[in-house]
Amino acid sequence: MPVKEQHDYALTVDNLEVEFDTYGGTVHAVRDVSFGLRRGKTLAIVGESGCGKSVTVQALMGLIPMPPGRITGGSARLRSAGSGPAGSGPAGSGATELIGLRERELNRIRGNRIGMIFQDPMTSLNPTMRIGDQIVETLRVHRGMSIREGFKEAERLLDRVRISEARERARQYPFEFSGGMLQRVMIAVALACSPEVLIADEPTTALDVTIQAQILDLMQALQREEGMSIILITHDLGVVARMADDVAVMYAGQIVESGSVEAIFHRGGHPYTLGLRRATPSNDPENRQQLEPIEGSPPDLFHPPVGCGYFARCPHAMQICEGSMPDPFDLHQPSAAAEGIRHSARCWLQHAQAPRTAGLNQNDAGREEP
Amino acid sequence: MWRYTLRRLIQGVITVWFIATATFAAMHMVPGDPLGSERATTESIRQNLEARYGLDKPVFPDQYLIFLGSMARGDFGISFTQQNRSVNDIIREAFPVSAQLGLLAVLFAALGGVLLGALTAINRNRLPDVIIMFLVILGISIPSFVFAALGQLAVVRLNDWSGQSLLPVAGWGTFQHMLLPALVLGLGTMAFLTRLMRSSMLEVVNTDYVRTARAKGVPPLRVFWRHQLRNAVLPVITVLGPAIAAITTGGFVVELVFAIPGLGRTFVEAVQQLDYTLIMGTTVFYGAFLVLMVILVDLIYGWVDPRVRLS
User: Fold this and answer.
1) Domain boundaries, chain B
2) Rounded to whole angstroms, how far apart are CA atoms B175 and B158?
3) Which residue range forms the structural domain that includes residue A56?
């Protein structure tokens, strides 16, 4: 029985494939991506720019411009609470398939059951609409509230995201707010209908450091209060360590390793995960290390490699890596079974016959599997 | 807001004074005078007339100051060429005609431009876009009197073909008389606004806030109205002031071609006959009108775009 079934998932994604047609050819932006978002938990998707993080979540939300974009395969199921563990049945039994959904049906889910916030709050709100109206819009569309009712609710929501003088603020325009305040407003907009899932696409990247911390704290507090599940897209491992329960590491359009935050930080099983860790600056005076950038650059996704995408940059690359990409190897430790999601890595070094590699977690449990 | 309006009005008055002075100077520099050559007059009659109209005094400062004084009182005096009619009367009679024509043309240009611009942007690089943008280039590059003649020809052919009088070819009186000249008058501006609206719309479609609206589950039609159109129309409103000016001055030619008894035709005739008072009256009136329109458009812009309103 797959480990996946042990958890109550709010959202599961299986074998998602996204392509873009460009003048230069077809870009395979997302390749065979699968992950599960545990209910009430935070899943961080990390990876460098252009690895397909944002495209993945935009595909779930139907926000990819088509054309040139195209979802060529896979499924994403939104599971309502109490619908039983994942895998207990296909799309039925309280699960909604998001991929291929028509615009009308998608619009009943977006903003209602899934909220989303974006990287740059300064440009993500309509400059000619009052803040209150933009919150009310969500409530009107999904709840059919009157403007008067909606405005009351908007004021309450602004209060919840810690914006003082909500009454006056609701009647102001975006240009009268600072970036951090606007991101709070975005969170209020996204949470207006108490969605089960909040997708945050690099929510703090455009903000300065002190404001970043405030926004992250706010998201954590609201998650405790509302019990929503969060997908957090980021390239900042500091944010991951602070926020995430589970982590998926993406590289060249694929998820190369996933597991609990402890597993990813302390028992990394993929050379790219280790590379990311070594390329992250540390503030710890005891543990000052030279930063080690990862040499080279990601592969050309016009012609994605047949084998491992990391092959050309990997210090431990073997012959087999060039020709084929392995399925995920299970790295799960029985002692950690209760905590987090299944720890797995797509790397041939996890194969039973692979050589031992310093610094890499090569689980013995994994060695027994083929 | 009120202080802003007041400041703009004072600036406007200065502008109008400048226009009036420049026109006054230019008019008196032109050789000839309003009393010349019409018919043989004796020296004494001529002196009498000059005294009656104040032309015996030196142009500067006497005539100029008299003119400024009466202009300040809103009285432009008696026309030289149209017997016993004051310039104010002539303007009062001719302006509503021009205003109706201009209003219809502006309406036509603005609505058509916004609509076609949005339409082409949505169908970018598809057939409707390609066809309309080709026509737009024609609309911008062909002058209005060519369109006027072509339009008249088309109407004549249409009437012949249908065997009845669908549209009048020229003249003034009914709403049908207005349609063709308003279309011709607005065409160039409409083409220009279509281009502007198209590029503005294409910019707005890819903005983050439109993506946010879609992520909120807002239905497509509402996204179009509330988020795209409203923001895309801002640059169009900005150029509406100059557009009104273009249409008003364009009216000079169109009124002549269609034999419309508007202020534009009056102005052209006044210049040809060097009717001093009528030239000054129409120029100052037009100047004041345009300045007012530009101020009005700026105020409307502030109402549509809150960022301007409050800064």
Assistant:
1) 2-87, 90-309
2) 18
3) 3-113+195-368
Q: What is the DSSP letter of B142?
A: S
* ipTM tops the 0.90 cut: no
Residue with more model confidence, B245 or A5: B245
Residue A175 domain flag: yes
Reported residue count of chain B is: 311
Report the 10 Å Cβ neighbour count for B59: 14
Domain assignment present for residue A119? The answer is: no
Interface test with B, best of A54, A106, A107, A197 (most B CBs within 10 A): A107
Q: How large is the average pLDDT for residues B257-272? A: 89
Answer whether residue A29 is part of any domain.
yes
CA distance A26 to A23: 8
Alpha-helical runs (H) found in B123-207: 127-141, 144-162, 175-205
Report the length, in residues, of chain A.
370
- Domain total in chain A: 2
Residue where a domain stops, chosen among A134, A163, A192: A192
How far lies B21's CA from each of A339, B56, B63, B263, B287, in Å? 86, 20, 12, 21, 12
- Looking at A192, A221, A242, the residue that finishes a domain is A192
**pTM for the predicted model, two decimal places:** 0.79
Any chain B CB within 8 A of the CB of A194? no
Shared domain check, A45 and A99: yes
CB-CB under 8 Å, B214 with A137:
no
A186 vs B: CB within 8 A: yes
What percentage of chain A has pLDDT greater than the value 70? Answer: 88
Q: Give Cα separations from B227 to A167, A179, B44, B116, B233 (angstroms).
A: 23, 20, 73, 18, 11
Helical (H) or strand (E) element with B250 = helix B240-257
Question: Over the stretch A326-352, which tens digit does the pLDDT of each residue have?
Answer: 888 887 766 655 566 788 888 888 877
Instruction: Please give, rounded to a whole number of angstroms, the shortest distance from the CA of B208 to a CA of chain A.
Output: 5
Contact A111 B217 (CB under 8 A): yes
Residues A201 and A186 grouped into a single domain: no
The answer to whether residues A8 and A135 belong to one domain is: no
**Judgement on whether residues A135 and A231 belong to the same structural domain of the protein:** no
Taking domain B90-309, whether its CATH number is 1.10.3720.10 is answered by: yes
- Best residue in B207, B216, B227, B304 to probe A by mutation, most A CBs within 10 Å? B216
Mean pLDDT score of chain B:
88
